[in-house]
């Protein structure tokens, strides 16, 4: 890596707000700024920008500057995507094996938290929940009760005999009513 070219590449990155390209790549990959490793990925993107700059201008003339943007975007995107995939695969391999093989493939294998044994009762007795419960329709109440019990939306739709989209509409109604209560 030539230090003079690298210095010029870093200056080009910071000049004319070219860092937007890296933010654009991260946005395109669906990585939001609230993600815990966003800054790490951003810094990696900056380094990849410099690499792309060096490689591109090793074979192209400075007059081809308008071709560099799409090239850099594509290169940074694929390299960051590879990194995110590697991390995801690594995390999957490092997770402890806690699933118990059961005869029924659809059955959840979750273990209750002993510290949260009274959690459901505490939620149901709270003043906010009581007010929300009173404002909800019967379907929304069914949604609330099942979610507090830890039942997934897919299981809930099978139990009640409606589509998941219907359950999502009930959820949206509950959210709207909860927001109204909280705004007061």
Strand residue percentage: under 5%
What's the rounded overall pLDDT mean?
Answer: 77
Count of structural domains: 2
End-to-end Cα distance, whole Å, is 60 Å
Domain RNA polymerase sigma-70 region: 17-88
InterPro entries: RNA_pol_sigma70_r2, RNA_pol_sigma_r2
GO molecular function: DNA-binding transcription factor activity
Protein name: RNA polymerase sigma-70 region 2 domain-containing protein
Which helices and strands occur, and which strands form pairs?
Layout lengths: L2 H12 L4 H10 L9 H22 L5 H30 L24 H7 L1 H9 L2 H11 L4 H8 L3 H20 L1
Helix pairs in contact: 1-3, 2-3, 2-4, 3-4, 6-9, 7-9, 8-9
Protein name: RNA polymerase sigma-70 region 2 domain-containing protein
GO molecular function: DNA-binding transcription factor activity
Organism: Liquorilactobacillus mali KCTC 3596 = DSM 20444
Give the tags.
single chain, mainly alpha, 9 helices, elongated
Folded structure, characterized:
By secondary structure, the chain is mostly helical. It has two domains: 3-94, no CATH class; 114-183, Arc Repressor Mutant, subunit A. Helix content is 70%, strand content 0%. It contains nine helices and no strands.
Describe the structure concisely.
Helices cover 70% and strands 0% of the residues. The chain has 184 residues and is an all-alpha fold.
């Amino acid at each position: 890596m030539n230090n003079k070219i690298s210095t010029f590449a870093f200056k080009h990155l910071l000049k004319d707000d070219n860092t937007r390209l890296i933010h654009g790549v991260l946005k395109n990959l669906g990585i939001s700024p609230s993600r815990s490793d966003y800054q790490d990925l951003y810094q990696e993107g900056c380094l990849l920008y410099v690499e792309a700059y060096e490689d591109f201008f090793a074979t192209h003339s400075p007059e081809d500057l308008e071709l560099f943007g799409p090239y850099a975007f594509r290169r940074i995107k694929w390299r960051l995507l590879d990194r995110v995939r590697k991390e995801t695969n690594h995390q999957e391999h490092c997770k402890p094996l806690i699933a118990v093989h059961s005869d029924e493939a659809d059955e959840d294998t979750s273990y209750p938290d002993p510290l949260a044994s009274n959690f459901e009762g505490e939620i149901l007795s709270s003043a906010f929940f009581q007010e929300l419960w009173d404002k909800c329709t019967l379907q929304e109440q069914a949604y609330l009760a099942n979610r507090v019990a830890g039942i997934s939306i897919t299981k809930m739709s099978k139990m009640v005999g409606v589509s998941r989209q219907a359950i999502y509409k009930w959820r949206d109604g509950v959210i709207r009513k909860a927001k109204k209560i909280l705004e007061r």
